[in-house]
């Protein structure tokens, strides 16, 4: 119940009514609201962060060319940045069930749901993250992992969740041909191809010889890159 305190507080901050204190306010139960300008804040597992968790999902699945990117703006909705997401008027901070962004991703009718058929469906976890982010005030917040464990990385537990967040919107079995230049990173055998030709690491490290990935998004946090590199170095196993 204490989490409900976040909502009025978040609104006060969004409206700029907060006193001009620059430190981050602590809510009594220890939940931290992180100001947008400080991405070096340690990640709090109770907080959903726009920059780390929500933006990559929107970029990979919604802000695609021909859909809700800055050029196309289908239905006048642009999910390519925080500003444009808020301006789309599909997010009501604190009220996910009144927010079009959330309502449309949980539709059960295949004719109504977003992303539309032919695209990668959002996972339950991705829908939950968007729900919690809106509930917590739809802030432009971000954080940095204070520790990065790169030991014993497996495909299923470590690498696939990263690819799911940042890449499957375009490079899944479903979407590869329409959005991902035919490159499928979802099945192991196809993923192996991108490992073997070195394009996987080359694209996510933004090396000059490759197209920078994720397309239309910002570079992955260093910790995620290091985790994938560690899995590649250990032989890119199907584990
Ligand atoms: C919005 C769609 C989209 C997203 C998200 C995306 N890609 Fe791509 N990817 C493309 C397209 C389109 C191409 C073809 C090159 C181009 O047009 O930039 C491509 C090309 C590639 C290539 C080939 C690069 C080369 O130089 O030949 C690799 C590897 C790749 N992507 C990996 C990834 C990875 C890994 C992620 C996630 C971290 C990712 N992509 C996210 C659309 C996307």
Summarize the structure in words.
The chain has 2 domains: 2-135, no CATH class; 155-233, no CATH class. The protein contains 11 helices and no strands. With 239 residues, the protein is mainly alpha-helical. Residues 60, 64, 166-167, 169-171, 179-181, 183, 185, 194, 199-200, 203-204, 210-211, 213-216, 220 line the site of heme C.
Biggest β-sheet, characterized? none
Content of β-strand: under 5%
Number of domains: 2
What ligand molecules are bound, each kind once? heme C
Secondary structure: helix percent: 25-40%
Provide the structure class. mainly alpha
Which shape, going by the Cα principal axes?
globular
Q: Which spans have pLDDT < 50 for at least 5 consecutive residues? A: 15-34
How far do the termini sit from each other?
A: 40 Å
List the helices and strands and how they pair.
Layout: H1 6-14, H2 50-61, H3 82-87, H4 100-105, H5 124-135, H6 155-166, H7 168-171, H8 176-179, H9 188-196, H10 199-204, H11 222-233
Heme C binds at residues 60, 64, 166-167, 169-171, 179-181, 183, 185, 194, 199-200, 203-204, 210-211, 213-216, 220.
Report a brief summary of the structure.
The chain is mainly α and 239 residues long. Helix content is 38%, strand content 0%. The protein has 2 domains: 2-135, no CATH class; 155-233, no CATH class.
């Amino acid at each position: 119940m204490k989490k409900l305190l976040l909502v009025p507080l978040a609104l006060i901050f969004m409206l700029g009514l907060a006193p001009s204190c620059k430190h981050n306010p602590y809510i009594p139960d220890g939940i931290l609201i992180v100001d947008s300008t400080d991405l070096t804040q340690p990640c709090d597992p109770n907080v959903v962060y726009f920059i780390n968790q929500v933006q990559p999902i929107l970029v990979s699945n919604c802000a695609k060319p021909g859909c809700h990117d800055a050029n196309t703006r289908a239905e006048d909705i642009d999910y390519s940045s925080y500003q444009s997401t808020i301006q789309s008027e599909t997010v009501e901070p604190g009220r996910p069930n009144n927010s079009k962004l959330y309502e449309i991703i949980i539709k059960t009718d295949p004719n109504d749901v977003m992303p539309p058929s032919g695209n990668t469906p959002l996972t339950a976890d991705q829908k939950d993250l968007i729900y919690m982010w809106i509930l917590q005030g739809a802030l432009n917040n971000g954080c940095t992992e204070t520790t990065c464990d790169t030991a014993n990385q497996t495909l299923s537990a470590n690498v696939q969740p990263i690819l799911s967040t940042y890449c499957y919107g375009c490079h899944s079995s479903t979407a590869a041909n329409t959005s991902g230049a035919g490159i499928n990173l979802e099945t192991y055998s196809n993923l192996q191809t991108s490992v073997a030709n070195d394009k996987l690491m080359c694209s996510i490290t933004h090396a000059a010889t490759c197209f920078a990935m994720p397309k239309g998004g910002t570079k992955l946090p260093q910790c995620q890159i290091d985790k994938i590199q560690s899995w590649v170095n250990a032989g890119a196993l199907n584990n």
